[in-house]
Design a protein that fits this description.
Blueprint lengths: L8 H13 L3 E6 L4 E4 L1 H7 L3 H4 L14 H14 L8 E7 L5 E12 L4 E9 L1 H23 L3 E5 L5 E4 L1 H7 L16 E3 L13 H6 L4 E10 L2 E15 L5 E10 L1 H24 L5 E6 L4 E4 L1 H7 L3 H4 L4 H4 L3 E2 L3 H11 L1 E9 L5 E13 L2 E11 L1 H13 L1 H7 L6 E5 L5 E4 L1 H7 L3 H4 L10 H5 L2 H12 L2 E8 L5 E12 L5 E10 L1 H15 L9 H18 L3 E8 L2 H8 L1 H18 L5 E6 L2 E6 L7 H14 L2 E3 L2 E3 L3 E8 L6 H17 L5 E3 L3 H5 L6 H10 L3 E10 L4 E12 L5 E2 L5 H7 L1 H22 L6 E5 L2 H4 L2 H14 L6 E6 H6 L4 H9 L3 E7 L6 H6 L4 E4 L11 H17 L2 E4 L5 H9 L4 E2 L8 E2 H10 L13 H7 L1
Parallel strand pairs: 28-29, 31-33, 33-34, 34-35, 35-36, 36-37, 37-38
Antiparallel strand pairs: 1-2, 1-5, 3-4, 4-5, 6-7, 6-11, 8-9, 9-10, 10-11, 12-13, 12-17, 14-15, 15-16, 16-17, 18-19, 18-22, 20-21, 21-22, 23-25, 23-28, 24-25, 26-27, 30-31, 30-38, 30-39, 31-32
């Protein structure tokens, strides 16, 4: 040091105090580049201590390898001729940290010569943060410029002098300007701006940019822009705002122009149209017919005097109402069909029935015209002529000439058959001969039933048709009929009774027309209505009809049948992990495998979701159903290849037999469902036949909603608790309350088998209140037994939060049990939060009281990341679907790591569910997952077992790894 300053010790102490407390790092080197001095800030910046570097060459410490030769050459050149690129000025260079990180620094080098040697004194400042900030400012500026350039509105920005410094593409087109980069001479006066009269120009001081430069805000200023490219001008709506720099001083102004030319023209056209309509209104009032004008939504806007007389409603009463509601219109053609015709042809005419204000039915001949302007259909014009009296006369005439009309309307296109009162054929026209193939000699004398299909004859359709005509005055029908050669055709027909003048029945007339081609088209539509759009299999409606028919046929032939109800295993997991598209592909493949496993006579349908059903006809062989079930289980158990993923699913099957198990379709399905439930409880991937003891053992399944209500009333619910372990302290911090239903002495039902019913029926609110009340009491009891830091986790549902009383009860129940709000954690599934964002406000209120909020099953829902910014939570829980394959599946490992990193960056905790192996636990621990729960620690247990577990400290083998088994602990750290 004395080599640097030949002064007293006090000066040397002052020098040391200054450089060691300066913001910059200070380094001194000799002419051989050996380090003579190294300040405290140099230690902080570069990671080398002063003791480590004194006497060492500078090139061995902070100079990157690629710059060392240049550094030594610069030293040599300065010593030779006194020249130096970095001397006595501030420059930016790259330095090297002890850990080999490169650091941008700002450097000033000052040489100090003495008689004996030259010493270089360097001041260095780490500018990493400044560089990062500059990069972010540039990035944000680029984003802002991109947004402005993509805006549809015209944007101009001027500096304080009025020169335009930014003109976005929309402004270039609207104002006929070039960009500010190519036309720096442009100012805000470079285009003409006229006042709303379209003639006089705005004074310079009143233009929006001038006002913004004075510090004023402008909203909604209307102006006309004129320039060479727009001779007619462009009407604009202007908004302007002043700009200020970071110190609040005026920095310019911004004006945004919105093109409103089209809106202004539409308004002028509407006003002109209104004046013309007013002029025409007096002429329409002279018309004899009722005239009304309606909007496209059928709201009356005009109602002439004849309409007032016909219907009894004044113009004031009718205007503003929906015409079809006011007049209680009866349509002979569906309204939507009429509208379609009017849209296509701009005109429709036909008969309607209206009801007047006095309640009288009025038959009108109605004519509708559609007015269309440049923007599309605008309104309806409706003219109604009263034809009530004429139609009454026509009906009376038709009634008196019924026999005559039947003969007049005879043609070869229609089969016209006269029948006696018992259905015997009396006459047979040529159309009937062509349609059926029977001559008149062959047909007359036969009963009309001969023309019906065997199925309809067996069901008595011919007799029913005649009875309906006799009682109702008419019987309309569409059905299959038989030709002489046995082929079938579809005919639409009507049967009308013929009466003697005195009143007795004289017989019937049946008129039919061949509609086979139309019916086949309708059958195609019907096929689509009766089949599943995804798999092409029959749907639930078609299956119900088929089962009804199969039972009737089975009963008639005395041949038993079987119903096999299939439910896919692990289907929800496929949807959750691979997505719904993969789930759809799996369902298609399942349908193909089922179809390839059954006989042609069997019937396969998809009931919905992952549930399929098979009607196995003719099961006279004792083991026929069992053989098919075994075949299906083997076939469904083979792996599926879904979009390059190997998927293992399998199926569970419930079987019921007709007539042994039930004699109607409803009971047959119920019994198959009970057998399926038993198969699932037996471990899945198996089949079960229905047995009578199922009703005795599981009577609650007959009406699960009623059984749930009874369970709530008689306290058949109980709670089990799943511990959650903090991975830094290996202590149980929280227990999650899990609901169980003790349906019978021997059966404990899990939530997935009844929560949907509880949700749909609304019972979930009462059950949730019971869970909260019981678990809070239990928590208080544990805390009094010495577990004072223990917290309780409660699962929440959407239905609970839709009940406002439930939310207010949560704090009240906690107060009643003597539990602190901070001891309660509310778990909300991610999918629930995405579907019901309205519950965020309620959760925020509860969180403000001190309760914690955790998003459960994170990664499987649709939470927008912005929600995690705006909606404060305490923790994320990784869904077990991403945990079960850790660390072997790359995709799951990436997702789990990303969720953990996201939680840490948000400053919240992260938990993992479903941890079962030491490998999974080690992986999560290594990535600083906050806590975990799963079978590796403990399964869900009753309250007394959980308390014993926590107090004894023997809740899991893993809790000893911190002491006696240090090697095991190392694996998790």
């Amino acid at each position: 040091m004395k080599l640097l300053f030949q002064e007293a010790q006090q000066a040397e102490n002052l020098y040391r105090l200054i450089i060691d407390n300066a913001l910059d790092a200070f380094i001194a080197i000799d002419q051989q580049s050996n380090i003579l001095d190294w300040s405290v800030q140099a230690e902080n910046t570069f990671g080398w201590s002063k003791q480590e570097v004194l006497g060492r060459p500078l090139v061995d410490t902070i100079i990157p390898q690629r710059y060392r030769a240049a550094h030594l050459e610069g030293m040599r050149r300065y010593l030779a001729d006194g020249s130096g690129r970095f001397l006595s000025r501030r420059v930016e260079i790259i330095a090297c940290h002890r850990d080999q990180r490169e650091i941008p620094i700002e450097l000033t080098v000052t040489p100090i010569r003495s008689s004996e040697r030259v010493i270089f004194f360097a001041s260095l400042r780490d500018i990493s943060e400044r560089r990062a900030l500059e990069d972010e400012v540039r990035r944000q500026a680029n984003i802002t410029r991109s947004i402005i350039d993509s805006m549809a509105a015209a944007v101009t920005v001027a500096d304080p002098s009025g020169q335009l410094v930014l003109v976005n593409p929309a402004a270039q087109r609207l104002l006929n300007l070039r960009s500010a980069d190519h036309a720096p001479e442009h100012s805000y006066l470079s285009f003409q701006l006229l006042q709303p009269d379209g003639k006089s120009e705005y004074p310079e001081s009143e233009r929006p940019m001038a006002r913004a430069l004075r510090g004023e805000a402008v909203d909604g200023l209307l102006a006309l822009v004129r320039h060479a490219a727009a001779s007619d001008g462009i009407w604009v709506n202007c908004n302007a705002r002043p700009l200020a720099d970071e110190h609040g001083a005026p920095a310019g102004g911004v004006v945004v122009f919105h093109d409103v030319t089209e809106l202004r023209r539409n308004g002028e056209a509407a006003a002109l149209q209104a004046r013309r309509l007013q002029e025409q209104a007096s002429l329409l009032d002279l018309a004899h017919d009722a005239i009304m004008v309606r909007t496209m939504d059928d709201v009356v806007t005009y109602w002439n005097r004849s309409a007032e007389k016909l219907y009894g409603y004044s113009r004031e009463e009718a205007t503003g109402t929906v015409s079809h509601v006011l007049l209680r219109t009866q349509f002979f053609t569906p309204l939507e069909r009429i509208r379609a015709i009017v849209r296509e042809q701009q005109y429709w005419e036909g008969e309607l029935i209206h009801v007047s204000k006095a309640g009288k039915e009025i038959t009108v001949f109605s004519q509708w015209a559609l007015e269309v302007n440049e923007s599309g259909p605008s309104r309806y014009l409706e003219i109604n002529t009263d034809v009530t009296q004429a139609r009454q006369t026509e009906r009376a005439l038709r009634a008196s000439q019924q026999d005559f009309r039947a003969l007049v309307e005879a043609s070869t296109d229609y089969a016209i058959v006269m029948l006696d009162p018992d259905g015997g054929i009396l006459s047979w026209n040529s159309g009937a001969q062509i349609m059926f193939g029977f001559s008149a000699q062959e047909a007359i004398g036969q009963n009309i039933a001969r023309l019906f299909t065997p199925e309809d004859r067996e069901c008595g359709e011919s007799e029913r048709e005649l009875d309906e005509a006799r009682n109702a005055g008419r019987a309309d029908n569409e059905r299959w009929h038989l030709r002489r050669d046995g082929t079938r055709f579809w005919a639409a027909g009507v049967v009308a009774p013929l009466w003697h003048e005195g009143g007795p029945l004289r017989g019937f007339v049946k008129i039919m027309r061949d509609h086979t081609r139309r019916h086949l088209d309708e059958e195609q539509t019907q096929f689509l209505a009766n089949h599943d759009g995804l798999t092409g299999l029959p749907n639930r409606v078609y299956f119900s009809n088929q089962l009804h028919k199969s039972i009737a046929l089975s009963e008639r032939n005395d041949v038993p049948l079987a119903v096999l109800l299939l439910d896919l295993d692990r289907f929800k997991q496929v949807n959750d992990t691979l997505g719904h598209h993969a789930g759809d592909l799996l369902l298609k493949e399942v349908a193909l495998r089922i179809l390839s496993s059954v006989r042609e006579t069997d019937f396969v349908a998809r009931l919905g979701g992952d549930e399929f059903v098979i009607i196995q006809k003719d099961v006279t062989q004792p083991d026929a159903s069992e053989t098919l079930a075994r075949k299906l289980i083997l076939e469904m158990g083979r792996p599926y290849l879904i979009e390059s993923h190997e998927v293992i699913s399998g199926t569970s099957i419930g079987i019921s037999l007709y007539p042994d198990d039930a004699r109607n379709s409803v009971d047959l399905i119920k019994r198959a469902d009970l057998a399926l439930y038993r198969a699932k409880n037996a471990g899945r991937h198996t089949y079960q036949f229905y047995t009578p003891d199922l009703f005795a053992e599981q009577a609650w399944k007959k009406d699960r909603e009623a059984a749930l209500r009874s369970a709530l009333l008689h306290e058949q619910f109980e709670l089990h608790y799943l511990p959650q372990v903090e991975l830094d302290s290996w202590k149980i911090s929280t227990v999650e309350a899990l609901l169980r239903w003790k349906a019978t002495e021997m059966e404990l039902v899990l939530p997935q088998d009844f929560l949907d019913i509880a949700e749909d029926s609304g019972l979930i609110v009462e059950i949730g209140e019971w869970v909260l009340r019981r678990s809070c009491r239990q928590l208080r009891e544990w805390q009094l037994h010495g577990l004072s830091e223990l917290s309780l986790s409660i699962n929440c549902s959407a239905r609970q939060f839709r009940d406002p009383k439930f939310v207010t009860k949560i704090p009240a129940i906690a107060d009643e049990a003597g539990v602190a709000y901070s001891s309660l954690e509310l778990e909300v599934p991610e999918a629930l939060l995405a579907r019901h964002p309205e519950i965020k406000a309620q959760l925020s209120e509860l969180r403000a009281l001190g309760m914690r909020v955790t998003i459960d099953n994170f990664g499987t829902g649709a939470t927008a990341l912005v929600d995690l910014k705006d909606f404060r939570i305490d923790a994320l829980k990784i869904d077990k679907a991403f945990v079960q394959h850790l660390p072997h599946r790359r995709e799951d490992s990436a997702i789990a790591s990303a969720i953990i990193s996201l939680a840490h960056n948000l400053g919240i905790k992260v938990a993992a569910g479903g941890v079962e192996t030491a490998e999974q636990l080690a992986y999560l621990k290594a990535r600083d997952c906050t806590s975990a729960q799963g079978f590796i620690f403990s399964p869900p247990l009753p309250a007394d077992k959980i308390e014993e577990l926590m107090l004894s400290g023997s809740w899991a083998r893993i809790n000893r790894w911190g002491g006696a088994d240090a090697a095991g602990a190392l694996e998790l750290h």
